[in-house]
Structure formats: C-alpha cells, structure tokens
Specification:
Length: 218
Amino acid sequence: MAGPSCSCCYDVEFDDRIAQREVREYHRSGPRRATRALAEALAGGGASGLTVLDIGGGIGALHHLLLQGGAVAAVDVDASGPYLAAAGAEARRLGLAERVTLVHGDFVAMAPTIEAADVVALDRVVCCYPDVEALVGAAAAHAWRRLGIVVPPDGRVGRLAAVAINLWQRVLRSALRMHAHSHATIARAAARGGLEWTVTRRVGVWRLLVFERPQAGG
C-alpha cells in the first residue's frame, strides 16, 4: 500500500491519539456542522445511487452520512493510517464496511490509480496541503458531478489564522503547516478540471465551496 509522498508525515501528525479523540467527539455529538453542510451540498436532491470519493476523510463522518443517505459506495483516500483505521472501525460499527474502500496515501500521487466518483469531498483538507492546485485539480478531474470543499475564510482573516496556528506548530516542533489558499486559486484549479463554482456558504468559522460539472444536470 503506497504511503504519502508529501514531506509532512501525516501518519505522525494525525496519529491514533488524535483519531480516537475525534471518534469520541463523533460518538458524543455526531458529525460536525461543516461536515453535515458538505454532505447536504454534495447530495443535492438526494444521495441515492451516488458514488463518493472522500479525500482526507478523517474518521469517515462525511462518507458515512452519504452512505446512510443512500449512496451506493465510497472510497476514502487518506494519508493518515490512524485516521483510516478509525474510519474503517466506524464503518463496521455502522454496518457500512462492505460499501467502503480504504486507501492509504497521498491522493495527488495516487490519483491515476483512483476511480472517479459522482461526488468528491475535501472536508478541511485543502488547508493542510501545500500544493492546492495539484490537490484541487486532481479532485476536480475525479468528480463526475460535484466537488465540495470546506476551507478557512478567504483573505486576511484566513492568513492571520494560518500564521497563528503555524507559530504554535513550531512551538510544538510539528512539521504540519496550515495554508491559507485563496478561494480564487481553488476555483481556478477546479475550473481546470472542468467544474464551475456555484456555491459559497459560511458555516461557522469555515467556508463551504461547491463546484459543479455543467453537463451533470443532463
């Protein structure tokens, strides 16, 4: 199984301790607000029959929601092995394991080996990846219908947040860095994959961006 090709080791930065903490929060409170909003946006009029590609799916909350709503299958590609293990355990707990394929690795490096899906999700993933054009471009190319992305706010607010978080990461001697990629840059990358920017929505401190393939309605 291929591992991440990026310089930051996501297996270390998103380890079992972090994954299990998120699982406990998930059991206590359910999916986060932004994740629920993303699932609703990707489902459109309903998730029935959809295939899902969840890039950096964490503990699997996003694709679990869509599968419970009627999606037929999901592929979860994550560079963190502990997150994948947690997502697999949750899928088994919910009776969804037979419809979920888990893939460990950097999606950008593995994109040629990953099948496209009706809907593609990047839930709070873009801000953790340095090459936004490569990530979003590959994700857009894999979306037959719709791509949904949850990112920090655009402009100065997002940049200041990234600076503050990265200063703290340095104190912790963590290799992980947050990136305040502009929404315009994200949109250009999605456009190169043939998608049109259709929705921008504020969800708490996050922003939900949705991109559609023009012919999907037909």
